[in-house]
Each structure stands twice: as C-alpha cells, then as structure tokens.
Amino acid sequence: MSNMIIGRYVPGNSIIHRLDPRAKLILSVSFIILIFLANNWLGYLILGLFTLLAVASTKISLAIYLKGLKPVLWLIVFTIVLQLFFSPSGHVYWAFGPFTVTNTGIINAVYVFLRFLFIILMSTVLTLTTQPLALADALEYLMKPLLKIKFPVYELSLMLAIALRFVPTLMDETVKVMNAQRARGVDFANGSIVKRSKAIVPILIPLFVGAIQRAIDLGDAMEARGYQGGENRTKFRVLAWQRRDSLAVLVFMCVLVILVGTRFLM
Amino acid sequence: MAIEFKNVSYVYQPGTPFANNALTDLNFKIQPNSYTALIGHTGSGKSTILQLLDGLIKPTTGQIIFDDHVVDNKTSQKILAKVRQHVGIVFQFPESQLFEQTVLKDVMFGPLNFGKNPQEAQELAQKALRLVNLPEEHWQKSPFDLSGGQMRRVAIAGVLAIEPQVLILDEPTAGLDPVGRKEMMAMFAELHATKNLTIILVTHQMEDAAEYADDVLVMANGQLVKHATPMEVFADITWLQAQQLDVPHTVLFKNKLSAQGFDLSANIINVEQLALALQRSLKKGGNHE
Amino acid sequence: MENIIEVKNISYQYPSSTSKALDNLSFSVTKGEWVAIIGHNGSGKSTLAKLLNYLLVADAGEILIDGQLVNEANMWTVRNKVGMVFQNPENQFVGATVADDVAFGLENRGIERERMLALVPAALKEVQMDVFADREPTHLSGGQKQRVALAGIIAVAPKIIILDEATAMLDPKGRKEVIAAIRKLKDRLGKELTVISITHDIDEAADADRILVINDGQLVEEGTPATIFSSGQRLLALGLDVPYAEQLKLALKNLDVDVPEEYLDEERLVQWLWQLNLKM
Question: What is the pLDDT of residue C114?
C-alpha cells in the first residue's frame, strides 16, 4: 500500500500546491483532452515542455513521479507493443506471421507512449499537490449547477469528505485485524490461491462489522450536533480564486492556441 | 517458556527518509511461568515489543530466543509460525477480531489453522471456553449477539485454544466496567497459577501491575529504562513521577500517612498490604500504652 | 430552583431485546448542576443519554429539557440545547481537520463564516488544542480527539453537556486532560452550564454535585458523592468502584479494625487513622 503514489498527497508550498483546487482540477482534465489534439512531433514537444514545467514547479522529487509510473508500467508496455507490431499501414521494416513493424507503427508507438506519460504525470501533479479533501471541495463547487435538477450535491460531497477522512482509520483497522488473525495462525503470504482467498473472510467480516458500528456512531454524533442535511448549512472551508489561478488558466490557453497552431503549421 | 531479547532493535521503514527507531538495543529475559507487566507511555515502544514477542515482525538487529527457536532478521516465516503457536496474544479490544457464525467455531479457528483436526479443535475450543467461564448456553450463538464483556471472553478463548505457553495481554480490561475488570484480572491470575502460563501484561493501570505482576519492564522512547520487581518500581514515587507514570494509589496514600507521622514499611504497594501494615501499627500503638 | 431536565417515568426497550433497558425512570436536574450517572455496563446509562436528545424515542413517559418537551417537533431545538461527547473518540470526529470538526456544529446551525472564524479558534483555545487546528485526526491521541469534540460543543454554547463515558477509552493521561478541560469550562460558565457525566470513573463521579446510580434500567440510589460513597459494599455489589479511601476502609474492616460508617475522603481518613493511632 505504501508504494502507491497515485492518489497520495505530498505537503508543500510550491506555486502548484497553492493553486485553487478548482483551477487544478479543470486544468488537469482539460489538459488530458488537449493531449489528443496533438498530431505531430512539435505538438508533443510543446505538451512535453508544459508537463515538465508543471512537474518542476511542484518542487517534488522526480523519483516520486517515477515511482508513480510503476503500477501502470505493464499497461504502457502492452499498448506500445500492440501499436508497434500491429500497425497495418506504412513502410514495412520487419514482418513475421501476424506481426509487422512499420514506420507508422513506430511513430504511433512513440506517440501512445508519450500520451500515457503526460496523462499520468499530469494527474500525479494534481494528486501530489492537492489534498483529497480540497479536491472534494472543488468537485462540490463544480457540481453546483446540478442542484437545479435536485441532485444532492452537498450530501454527496460530505459523504466523499467523510469517506476520505476514514480511509486512514480503516487502514489502521485492517492492519490490526490482520495481525490478530495472523496470531491465530492465518498465513496470508503462502498457500494456494483458494487458501489465500479464504483467508480474506476473517479480515473482511470484522472490518465490515467495525465499519457499520462506526457508521452508526457517526450518524448519532452528526445528528446530536445538529446535522439536518445539506440545506441551510454554511461553510467553514471556502475556496478562494486568486490572481495566480487566473494566470495559470492564461498560460494553459496559450499552450492550447499554440497547439492548435501546430496542426495547421505542419 | 523463557523468552530472551538480546540487543534487539527495531526500525520502521529502514533505509527510507521515514526510518524511525522504534526500539533501541533491548536486553531482557522473561522467565518461565513469570507474570511480567510491561508499562510505559503510548508510543514508548510497547506495541512493537508485543509484535516481536509473537513473531509478527522480525527484529532489525539482534536476536530473540524462544527456548529452542532463535528469531533474528533472517528467520523464515515457518519458524515464526511456530513461535506464534507457543505465544498467544490478546490484542486491545480483541472482540473486534471475531467473525465466525458461532462462538464455538470462532474459538476453533486458531487450532484449525495450526493443523489440528476438527475433532481436536472442537475439544480445545470447549476447554478454552470453560477456562474463560463462558456458559455453555452461549456456545452455539453468534458471537455478535453477546454482550461486550462476553465477546471479549470469546476472543480470549480463541487465543487460549491454541494452548500457548506464553499469553500476552494488551490492555485486556480497556472499556470494561469495574466488575468486568476485576473478574478479568482474577481470571488471568488463575490461569497463571493453575495452567503455568507465562503472562506478559501491557497496562496503563499501575494498580493492576502492582497487584498481579512479579516482574516489571518499564519502556520510554524505545528503550528499557527499568527492569525490576513491582516493589522496586512502584515504591519509588520520585522516579515514577520523573517518568511521568502514574503512582499506585496505595503508594500515594501511604505517603500521606507517613507525612502525618505513621512509621510504615517501604514495601507497600497495594491496598491489602497497607491495611495489614496499618493494623499492625495500630496494635503496636496499643502496646505502648 | 429551576429544573433544566425533567425525566418522568420513561421506559425504553430495544427492538432486539427481551428486557427493558430503562424501566419507569424518573429524576430531575436543576440548572447549573453537575450530575454523575453511574452504573455497570448494560445498566441503561447510555440509552438514557440518547433519549435525552431524541436519538432514541422513549416507549413511555416524557422528558422536558429547559421547559421543552422532547419530541419530533422539538428535536432540533432540544439538540441545540444539549451537547454530547460520546465514548469512541474516532467515531465522532466528522471533520477532515481539527478546525473543520469544531466548525461542523456551527455549519449545521447556519452561522455565518465570519463568526465561525472567531468561534472556532476560541473554542480550541479553551481546550488547549489551538496549535493543532490544521491537524488531521489520524495524528491525534484519543484524549486530544475528545478535547476537540468538547471544543465542537463549546463553539455552539449549549446549556447542557452530556458526557457519555467520554473518558472510558482513554489512557490515564488523556483522561486527566479531558476531565481538566471540562472542569475549567464548568468553572468559567458556572450556573449557565449543566453537566451530566455518565461514567465508571469514580474520581470523575466524585467531582459531581450529585450522583445517580442506575441498575437494570432503574434508579437505585441518588445523593451527594459523600452519601453514595458511604455505602461502599453496596456499590461493589452493583458492580461499581469505590474511591480509594473507601477501598482501604473495607480492607481494614476485613482485618477486624473498627471503621466509621460515614464516608471519609482521603484527608479525613488520614486524620481518623492518626487519632486512632494516638488513642491506642
């Protein structure tokens, strides 16, 4: 669990850390869409520079980013191989049975690799520099228009915030229950798949029972403290859009314009 | 079973920037059939020691010697599993590890895991449930239908059913009411006396340590700061307060009596001892007249 | 004296249970009083706490809080008047950080943000948790979490605080910190705050003006700590603790030393023993 980098927050005080989570969320999502606009090497170069700029501005060590790539490494390799060997058109360099390597195949493989790289790096930038709770706040704000169609935006975001708040609690609990069952002779590390999946039951049931009790207690505590649903509540935590956020959007727009430009240029 | 720690240290996440020395160079021996109290503040390293004692983790450096097994950094999981079979651990709030459909099945879980056949496991489970005084009418019930105190007894039976030679108790009375606490501590004292169990008790209740233990380990910041008899540890108010540990009530009260002029022995750490000393002192006072 | 809580003949039975958790219970609490409710686990204490602010609904009888009947129509006004600290520190921490958690009750009451920005730090300061305002709950001890829960209540300034075994899951240090914080608050607010403390901790109960002893859902004894503690044997029979001075008295009694029937606190017991020593 401790190797998972995606979804982890690393505290810091860089410009990216200080950006409004709404700005970061919108820009990251837009960037991922933007990636698919690039169709030539110049476009990819610009995207690459922009990504590197974002990564560098977080002031978080590159090693952490590289660690973040690890879990998806096989997915990337698989897609590249697919592109590399199964491109039907273009100049053929090498062929064997169903496998052909062509110049378009190589180019496509490189592009696909870059897309993956940019998407993962950018989303890692978002999660490394933004507390999950701030992201939940940003989501709540961006979903506000849905209130018009009676969508329970506030309830949903409170649920999300509480879920995030209880993640460490449940992780601790998992470790405790696992230790207790190991002490009673359960071996999680060895044995057949069947044996190992059976070993999950003595973990899951206590965890569920515990989580349900927590939910009941929490419900009581929330009601006792006057929680009556999302209506008429005020908010202690507010998001403040600053000049730097507008600036970030402006920089992004420039990249967008240049990128569109390259499509005509090349 | 005797357990000996030789130069044991434990580091969390070694070799990373988060490396954290949980235990530093521990040396001590727990004698067979002893009743040891392990005390110290939250975060002093007690829970790391517990996990080492039960073979749930391995020391970063040093050795732990369990009669005929030696555990160090390179010990295999197989050996650790054997250690676990001889050392039972009752974690804090152990009722949160129950999961089976019936009480009996839950208690059988440990013996089955350690290779007993269902018949043997059931016999061990019944024996353990009798040891914790859980009436037979509850054995076929779901553990979740019992009261909190009963659930805790089931969980303890689940550990006893493994027939450990050493029983580790981590705050076993936390959350119980006064009568539940007394019954629980009396039950462990009886197991200690009749089953020759070696007991290691982790507790914040200095009264319990002073009452039941015959050996005390005091931890602070990952180091063993004192290993002595309860009398030596608890009679020394100045030292206890310097360690920011609670002083047993009897010792505090005895001090008030001494300040008033009573001449009482230093070897008094529980209420029965104090009452006895007072009775003698009062009688002696009578002789003077 | 004005009664801030009046409980009249209430009974409650859990749907899954075969016996009554509370059985025709009546008592009242005057404004500004500190009342401890003691009883062994399963005696009905916590059920009572939940009935007081309508988290559970009584099968029979009625409860008045500050003159208002506790019922469906009044439940939110009643909850505004009653703050509760529950037993499990982890399971009542709603906010992502300490400050967020303290603000939760204020947000529910629709208080404007400007006022929250003043109320939250002030409440945290009162329980000496102000330096932890931005901490997440994972990095707090049990005692710290309970003090945050208390701050969340202080911020909304209720007339009554119910401590439902609030110190039961804490280590001795945490317990002392929480009790100290409550005492300080009570000293500051005096008559304006009524405290109901449901507890096993005999030292906590000794702080109260009055103790109610509950057994099997019924009120079995009621009086000042001195009166309640003087019947030490009876408390032990009900599965409860007695203060240390009383434990020593009982131990002496077992050794055939004649001890006084009335309750003596530690100082007075020392004096009494000394007198006895001189007389002999």
Answer: 95
Instruction: Answer whether A206 sits within 8 Å of B97, measured CB to CB.
Output: yes
Chain A positions touching B109 (Cβ under 8 A) are 184-185, 202
> Domain check: are B111 and B220 in the same one?
yes
Q: How many domains does chain A have?
A: 2
Q: Which pLDDT score, from 0 to 100, does residue B4 have?
A: 95
Q: Which of A168, A224, A233 sits opposite C107 (nearest CB)?
A: A233
Do residues B89 and B212 both lie within one domain? yes
CB contact under 8 A, C109 and A226: yes
Which of 214-253 (B) contact C at CB < 8 A? 244, 246, 249-250, 253
Residues B163 and B226 in one domain: yes
What is the distance in angstroms between the Cα of B64 and the nearest Cα belonging to chain A?
17
Residue of chain B minimizing CA distance to A184: B110
Burial of C106 (0-12, 13-18, 19+ CB in 10 A): buried
Taking a C-beta distance cutoff of 8 angstroms, is the pair B91, A180 a contact? yes
Q: What is the CATH number of the domain that holds B18?
A: 3.40.50.300
If asked whether residues A83 and A143 sit together in one domain, one would say no
- With CB atoms and an 8 Å threshold, state whether A228 touches C109: no
Q: Of chain B residues 45-74, which have a CB less than 8 A from chain C?
A: none
**Residue range A134-158: average pLDDT?**
90
Rg value, chain C, Cα: 20
| Residue B15 confidence (pLDDT) | 66
Residue B161 within any structural domain of the chain: yes
Tell whether the model's pLDDT for residue B22 goes beyond 80: yes
Residues A183 and A159 in one domain: yes
Domain of B287, in residue numbers: 248-289
Full residue range of the structural domain in which residue A174 is found: 132-235
Instruction: Give me the interface pTM, i.e. the ipTM.
Output: 0.91
With respect to residue B243, please indicate whether it lies within any of the assigned structural domains: no
Within a domain: residue B202?
A: yes
Taking the mean position of all CA atoms in its chain, how far away is CA B83?
17
Portion of chain C with pLDDT greater than 90, in percent = 72
Quote the pTM value: 0.88
Are B86 and B165 in contact by the 8 Å Cβ rule? The answer is: yes
Are residues A116 and A247 located together in one domain of the fold? yes
Is B17 a residue whose pLDDT tops 70?
no
Q: How many CB atoms sit inside 10 A of residue A74's CB?
A: 9
* H or E stretch at B51: helix B46-53
Q: Which residue of B83, B96, B109 to mutate against A (max A Cβ within 10 Å)?
A: B96
Determine, for residues C88 and A223 on separate chains, whether the beta-carbon distance falls below 8 Å.
no
Give mean pLDDT, residues C18-25: 92
Q: What is the mean pLDDT of residues C241-264?
A: 89
> Three-class SS of residue A162?
helix
Same domain, A29 and A113: yes
Domain identity same for B168 and B224: yes
Residues B165 and B280 in one domain: no
Residue to substitute from B85, B90, B97, B108, interface A, most A β-carbons within 10 A: B97
What distance in Å separates the CA atoms of residue A36 and residue C171, rounded to the nearest whole number? 57
Min distance C186 CA to chain A CA atoms (Å): 20
- Regarding whether B110 and B18 lie in a shared domain, the answer is yes
Helices (H), C157-265: 172-189, 202-206, 225-230, 232-237, 244-254
Q: Is residue B169 part of a domain?
A: yes
* A248 and A223 both lie in a single domain: no
> Quick check: B204 and C40 CB within 8 A?
no
- The mean pLDDT of chain B is 91
pLDDT digits (tens, 9 = 90+) for A3-13: 445 557 888 88
For residues B156 and B275, membership in a common domain is answered with: no
Mean pLDDT computed over every residue of chain A: 87
Q: What's the average model confidence in pLDDT over A142-169? A: 90
Determine the Cα–Cα distance for residues B63 and B72; give it in Å rounded to an integer: 5
At B18, the pLDDT band (50, 70, 90 cuts) reads low
